[in-house]
């Protein structure tokens, strides 16, 4: 993230903070970058040697635009099943044929894109660092509308029937008309003075939109008018200072059936009932990068790049490992029988979903992979901060 500087995991977490410092100062004791000398910088672990048990083939790759290293943006590919849409910070948005990678169109928006895209197959929606939202036609990339909001968009929007839902970094969740970008409603949560950079995307489930906030709350709102359905405090903030009291929910929540799965920076992963917001189980796991689910398990990337698998029904730990400790991994993706993450050197790691054992490793590019991989049918799509997009497939070993 910061070239030429080796950081302890505590320092890295401190420097990931987007400070809203209106007064006072934040203690960084223990962080040698700021003069503390009571701990040594923790270098990323060396990658372990292992014998590959699955074979991963690169199917196609393409360039998206300029490099965005160190910005930690929420740019990740999206799909309607037959096409892949992806964007670069320099404003370029591309559509590709999903299987063969043929570029279908390229739109140069001229905006500083920072979140998205999202698509319903008819429109492609993105957010910018300047708080704008832009909608493009999915068929040819022509601009349909743009709308200015109150602050930066650091998460992909969500699309519901007739609506685009956008989470901005000031704690607002805004519903826009998908036809013309007109505001339909908005809600806002109180923000703490200090937060971790980034936000989770809103998720549409049935007739509500569910979103996590920087105050540690998980909330659901009626799609029709933004009426609160419920909110729940995932983990009450505690600690001696504002850093220790960080409780952000930056990982996009996941849903399976009538249950919502969430992880917070403060140190709790939980299952929550969609209907009521009632907590079904909790587990002590601190996550920043994200989580993924399949029918059996919940997979979490920890704030120190630990990896966890939790049993979905009970929250009990299935496995945990630190094979990628301090490698600043992405959120996970569940792909076939694997859990997949990217890291700060552009490597993509495949682990057995049942045991956590390494299965394979490939490298997309020399630059960081910030966003979790995307799974569409039998292909895995990964975007690097260096402006590269690639599709991978697991193939039979000869």
What is the topology?
Layout: H1 9-15, E1 17-19, E2 55-63, E3 74-75, E4 78-79, E5 83-87, E6 92-97, E7 103-108, E8 113-119, E9 123-128, E10 132-137, E11 143-148, E12 158-160, E13 163-167, E14 172-177, E15 183-188, E16 194-196, E17 203-205, E18 208-212, E19 217-222, E20 228-233, E21 254-256, E22 259-263, E23 269-273, E24 279-283, E25 287-293, E26 297-302, E27 307-311, E28 317-321, E29 333-335, E30 338-342, E31 347-352, E32 358-363, E33 374-376, E34 379-383, E35 388-395
Parallel strand pairs: 3-8
Antiparallel strand pairs: 1-16, 2-35, 4-5, 5-6, 6-7, 8-9, 9-10, 10-11, 12-13, 13-14, 14-15, 17-18, 18-19, 19-20, 21-22, 22-23, 23-24, 25-26, 26-27, 27-28, 29-30, 30-31, 31-32, 33-34, 34-35
Q: Notable features of this structure?
A:
Methylamine Dehydrogenase, Chain H; 1 helix; mainly beta; four-stranded antiparallel beta sheet; five-stranded mixed beta sheet; globular; disordered N terminus; about 400 residues
The largest sheet has its strands arranged as 3-8-9-10-11
Helix/sheet category: mainly beta
CATH superfamily placement of the largest domain: YVTN repeat-like/Quinoprotein amine dehydrogenase
Low-confidence stretches: 1-38
The figure for the number of domains is: 2
Q: Could you walk me through the main structural features you see in this protein, from its secondary elements to its overall organization?
A:
- The protein is mainly β and 398 residues long.
- It folds into two domains: 1-43, no CATH class; 44-395, Methylamine Dehydrogenase, Chain H.
- 2% of the residues lie in helices and 45% in strands.
- The protein has a five-stranded mixed beta sheet with strand order 3-8-9-10-11, with no helix packed on it. Strands 2-35-34-33 form a four-stranded antiparallel beta sheet, with no helix packed on it.
- A hairpin with a 4-residue loop joins strand 13 and strand 14.
- The longest helix is centred in the first third of the chain and has 7 residues, at 9-15.
């Amino acid at each position: 993230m910061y070239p030429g500087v080796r950081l302890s995991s505590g320092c890295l977490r401190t420097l990931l903070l987007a400070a809203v410092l209106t007064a006072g100062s934040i203690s960084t004791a223990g962080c040698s970058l700021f003069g503390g000398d009571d701990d040594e910088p923790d270098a990323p672990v060396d990658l372990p040697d292992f014998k590959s048990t699955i074979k991963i083939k690169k199917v196609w790759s393409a360039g998206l635009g300029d490099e965005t290293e160190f910005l930690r943006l929420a740019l990740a590919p999206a799909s309607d099943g037959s096409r892949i849409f992806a964007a670069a910070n320099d404003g370029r948005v591309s559509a590709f044929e999903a299987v063969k990678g043929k570029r279908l169109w390229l739109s140069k928006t001229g905006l500083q894109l920072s979140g998205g895209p999202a698509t319903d197959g008819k429109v492609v929606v993105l957010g910018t660092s300047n708080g704008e939202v832009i909608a493009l036609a999915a068929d040819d990339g022509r601009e349909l509308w743009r709308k200015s909001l109150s602050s930066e968009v650091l998460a992909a929007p969500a699309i519901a029937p007739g609506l685009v839902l956008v989470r901005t970094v000031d704690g607002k969740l805004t519903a826009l008309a998908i036809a013309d970008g007109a505001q339909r409603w908005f809600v806002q949560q109180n923000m703490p003075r200090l937060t971790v950079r980034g936000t989770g995307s809103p998720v549409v489930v049935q007739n509500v939109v569910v979103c996590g906030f920087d105050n540690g709350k998980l909330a659901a709102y009626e799609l029709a008018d933004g009426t609160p359905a419920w909110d729940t405090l995932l983990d009450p903030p505690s600690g001696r200072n504002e850093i220790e009291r960080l409780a952000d929910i930056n990982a996009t929540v996941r849903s399976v059936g009538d249950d919502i799965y969430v992880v917070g920076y403060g140190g709790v992963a939980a299952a929550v009932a969609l209907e009521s917001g009632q907590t079904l189980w909790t587990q002590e796991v601190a996550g920043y990068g994200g989580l993924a689910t399949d029918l059996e398990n919940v997979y979490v990337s920890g704030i120190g790049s630990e990896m966890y698998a939790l049993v979905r029904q009970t929250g009990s730990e299935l496995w945990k490992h630190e094979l990628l400790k301090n490698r600043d991994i992405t959120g996970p993706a569940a792909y076939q029988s694997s859990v997949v993450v990217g890291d700060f050197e552009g490597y993509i790691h495949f682990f057995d979903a049942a045991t956590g054992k390494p299965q394979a490793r490939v490298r997309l590019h020399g630059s960081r992979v910030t966003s979790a991989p995307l799974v569409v049918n039998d292909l895995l799509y990964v975007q690097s901060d260096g402006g590269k997009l690639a599709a991978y497939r697991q193939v039979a070993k000869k």
